[in-house]
Amino acid sequence: MKYLFCAFVFLIGFSFTYTGDRSAFKNYIPYILAALVIVLFEYDDYFYSIFYKLFNLFFWIFIASMYLELLNPGLFRSVFSFLSLGKNLVVRSTDGVAIAGLAFEKADAAFLCNLGLGVLFAKIFNRGLNLSQLFQLGIVFGALMMTGKRTLFLIPLVSIVAFALFFSRSHRVAKAMAVLLAVFVCLAVTYTFVPQVSLVFERFLADNGDPLSGREVFWTYAMEMFRSSPLLGEGFLSFNAYVNSRGFLYYGEPWQFQAHNVYLQLLAELGIVGLLLFVSMLAILIFGFGRSAKKDPNIFNLTAFYWAVLIAIYSMTGNTIYYACQLMVFAVVVNIYLKYISPREGYSK
To answer: Quick one: the chain helix, strand, coil %, rounded to 5?
Structure first.
């Protein structure tokens, strides 16, 4: 795993010599280096204990910020606008269409909601479902639905059934249905008191015959790039420049939002070699964490398993490793795998 990750980073670095957008590449170098540091260094159990507690603390602050934005957008802007770093993101997130809270962007907000749901699912299948956790599920699912992100809404619904089927000790089907029923009860209650959660359903129904929301256009461009350089691709982060060079505009502006499919974009930018490295890492992570959770379903391996599955599935329609925060999550999952799941191939003392 460590060699695969280093080879992946090396290939990204090597692609700087031929990428079509060196400016974007230079801006992303600090995040690539940060991910490499996270993977190469070992952190002790105390660090991960603190990490887990801090994640829970900041996650619930983030969820509270989403409901504050819902209930009082003006107060939210006055309190938190300085955190937008001058990018005018608060205005975009409070336009009445989607709620993003302190993430300031609906895709990041939905991804963060999923990270928290992974922790909640791990607690439920490690300690059992109680009224407090049921209430927390309703709050987080409500926040997730306010972002309007369809794929990131479906992933936890499917995953909670999969958790029940694979990680429950007995009565798997009954537990799966019971947990799913509990989720739907939470959704119904949340929908009753927070009508804005209907946004995700409206997006399902209002696709205008295009459930991919135009993504197939970008996927076609990605395949064009791949055919021109199939082995090593056109260079990391060159997709936007390639699309814009073909005259594509988004509301009259140059496209800046990647291919919305990490697998196809890696195929275009790093070729077959880059895609195989990334897919191999995901396969090892999911199989390793799944096998570990099957034998001993504890909070840490269940959470990491969910996060790995989240990245693998969302990479089909999202931009996971092309967003810094999601790249860091991927690096953390790799580090956890090397420390706890396969320590013999992990870190030398």
So the answer is: 75, 0, 25
